[in-house]
Design goal:
Layout (H helix, E strand, L loop, with lengths): L1 H11 L7 H17 L1 H12 L3 H27 L2 E3 L9 E8 L2 E5 L7 H12 L3 E5 L5 H14 L5 E3 L4 H8 L5 E5 L2 H12 L5 E4 L5 E4 L5 H13 L11 E5 L3 H16 L15 H10 L5 E2 L4 E2 L2 E7 L3 H5 L11 E7 L2 H9 L6 E5 L3 H10 L4 E4 L20 E2 L5 H6 L1 E8 L17 H8 L1
Parallel strand pairs: 3-4, 3-6, 4-5, 6-7, 8-9, 8-14, 9-13, 12-13, 14-15
Antiparallel strand pairs: 1-2, 2-17, 7-16, 10-11
Length: about 450
C-alpha cells in the first residue's frame, strides 16, 4: 500500500494531472471505457444485487456518464484563477484564487450502488486534478472486478488504481498518508475512517446514511404519493441510503394510504415479488438475516436472498409500538416500510427533530405552509417535496449529509470543489510602498480607524 501511494505521489509531482486538456482526455477515456464494458457492468450488478439492466442503467450507469459529461464541459471555467480586487488596506496589491488539487486521494465505496458510488467521486477527483486509489466493497465482488478491469485498461496505476479486499486491506489503506479521503458507507465505519484520518490531519468527506423520514399529509394526492414512495422505497430492494426509511402519514388518510401502497406494490412488482426478475435481492446472508429479524413475518426466500416488499402498520406516533419497535432503532436498508400515523403535524416536527439528522427527508403535500415549515425548521441533507430520491440525480444540486448522516457534499461543481483546495495568493508591487502600517506607530490609531473601518 505504501509503495502504491508513493508511486501516485511521485506521479502527482510531475504536474501532469494539473493540465486541463489532459484531465478532459482522461474523463473522455473513462466515458468510452464505461460504454465499452456496459454489458459486463450489467452482468456484474445482476450477479451482486440481481439488478435488472433497466434499473442498472437508470440509477447507476447513466448517472455516471452524465456526470462525466457535465464535469468535462465545465472544468476549464471552474479551474481558471479568480482575480480579487484589493481592499483599501491591501492596496496596491492584487490577489488571485487558484484551484489546486489535493494530491493523492482515497475513495472508499459501498456495495449498494457499487458502480455509481465508486465512479461519481472518482470523476470529481480526476476533474480536480488528483490521483486516486479506489477501494470498492468486497460484498459486491462482481462489480468490484469490472471496476478494476475498467480502471486497469483506462489509466496508469500511478494515476488511478483499485485495491480489492476486506478489513485487512481497508486497515492497510487507512494507515497510509493520503491527501484526501472520500468515504461512503455506514456511520460506524465512517467514525473509524475519521479517526484514522486524524492521525495525518487528512481532510475527509463522509457520505453516510440514517433514517430518512417521509411525511404524507391529508392534502396529498394519495395515489401519486403511494406510487412514488413505493418506487423509491423498494428500488434496489430498499438498499438505498436516501430511500424513505419510514412513513409518517396523517391519521385521516392512513387507511387509504396503506391500501394505495399495497395496490402499488402489486402493480409495480406483481402479486409475488419474490419471483419477479426485476426485483433485487438482499446483498448477502448477513444482511438478509438482519432484515428477517427486524420483521419475521415478511415473505422471504432464503435461497435467492429475496424479501418481499412489506408494509408494517406501527400505529400512532407516540405509541409504545413506535418507540420500542426494532424497525425504528436503526436504518432499515431493506424492503420493509413502517407506517406511523399522526394527528398533529407539530408532533411530526418534534419526532424528527429529536432524532439524528437524516440524510434525506420527503414530504407529500399541497399545503404550502407545511412545505415551508419542513424546509425551514428541520435539518437534513437533501430532500424532495412530492417526490423521493430524485434530488440526487442532478449534477447541479449538492448531495451530502449533515451531522450523523455525513459531512461534505459532491455532484457536479460540488465534486470539483470537494477535491480542490482553493489557494489564495496576494501579489504586491515594488513601485511604491505605503509606510502607514510600519512601526513606530506613534499616534496613528485614530487615523487608521477612520480610513479602515
Amino acid at each position: 500500500m505504501s509503495i502504491l501511494v508513493e508511486k501516485q505521489r511521485a506521479f502527482f509531482f510531475t504536474n501532469q494531472t494539473k493540465n486541463i486538456k489532459w484531465r478532459k482526455a482522461q474523463l473522455c477515456n473513462l466515458y468510452d471505457s464505461i460504454k465499452k464494458y456496459e454489458n459486463e457492468i450489467f452482468d456484474a450488478l445482476r450477479n451482486d444485487l440481481f439488478k435488472s439492466p433497466f434499473e442498472s442503467y437508470l440509477v447507476e450507469i447513466q448517472l455516471v456518464l452524465k456526470e462525466v459529461d457535465y464535469l468535462r464541459k465545465h472544468i476549464s471555467k471552474w479551474n481558471k484563477p479568480r482575480i480579487i480586487l484589493p481592499s483599501f488596506a491591501q492596496f496596491p496589491s492584487i490577489s488571485k484564487i487558484f484551484a489546486e488539487p489535493y494530491g493523492v486521494t482515497l475513495i472508499m465505496s459501498p456495495w449498494n450502488y457499487p458502480f455509481l458510488l465508486t465512479m461519481e467521486p472518482l470523476i470529481g477527483a480526476i476533474a480536480a486534478g488528483n490521483c486516486a486509489v479506489l477501494k470498492p466493497s468486497r460484498y459486491s465482488s462482481a462489480t468490484s472486478n469490472i471496476i478494476e478491469k475498467i480502471i486497469k485498461t483506462t489509466f496508469k496505476e500511478e494515476f488511478v488504481s483499485v485495491v480489492q479486499g476486506g478489513h485487512l486491506q481497508n486497515e492497510a489503506l487507512l494507515n497510509q498518508h493520503f491527501d484526501y479521503i472520500f468515504f461512503t458507507g455506514s456511520p460506524n465505519v465512517g467514525k473509524i475512517v475519521m479517526e484514522k484520518a486524524s492521525k495525518f490531519l487528512t481532510p475527509v468527506s463522509l457520505e453516510l446514511g440514517g433514517k430518512s423520514p417521509c411525511i404524507v399529509d391529508s392534502t396529498a394526492n394519495i395515489e401519486i404519493a403511494a406510487r412514488r414512495i413505493v418506487w423509491g422505497k423498494f428500488l434496489n430492494a430498499g438498499q438505498t441510503c436516501v430511500a424513505p426509511d419510514y412513513i409518517l402519514v396523517d391519521e385521516k388518510i392512513k387507511t387509504q394510504f396503506i391500501s394505495a401502497v399495497k395496490k402499488e406494490i402489486i402493480s409495480q412488482f406483481g402479486s409475488n415479488p419474490l419471483l419477479n426478475d426485476e426485483f433485487c435481492k438482499i446483498i448477502n446472508e448477513k444482511h438478509f438475516q438482519r432484515l428477517c429479524s427486524l420483521c419475521p413475518v415478511a415473505e422471504k426466500n432464503a435461497v435467492s436472498n429475496k424479501i418481499a416488499p412489506t408494509v408494517i402498520n406501527l400505529g400512532q406516533i407516540d405509541s409504545n409500538e413506535v418507540n420500542e419497535s426494532p424497525l425504528m432503532k436503526e436504518e432499515i436498508f431493506g424492503p420493509l416500510m413502517p407506517v406511523i400515523s399522526y394527528i398533529n403535524i407539530n408532533s411530526v416536527i418534534s419526532f424528527i427533530r429529536n432524532r439524528n439528522k437524516p440524510l434525506a427527508l420527503y414530504v407529500f403535500t399541497k399545503d404550502k405552509s407545511l412545505e415551508k415549515r419542513v424546509t425551514k425548521e428541520l435539518q437534513y441533507g437533501s430532500g424532495c417535496i412530492n417526490d423521493v430520491i430524485m434530488q440526487i440525480s442532478s449534477s447541479k444540486l449538492p448531495f451530502g449529509g449533515i451531522g450523523e448522516s455525513g459531512m461534505g457534499c459532491y455532484h457536479g461543481k460540488y465534486s470539483f470543489d470537494t477535491f480542490t483546495h482553493y489557494k489564495s495568493v496576494l501579489k504586491n508591487t515594488f513601485c511604491f510602498d505605503i509606510k502607514l502600517k510600519y512601526a513606530p506607530y506613534n499616534d496613528r490609531l485614530n487615523f487608521i480607524k477612520k480610513i479602515l473601518h
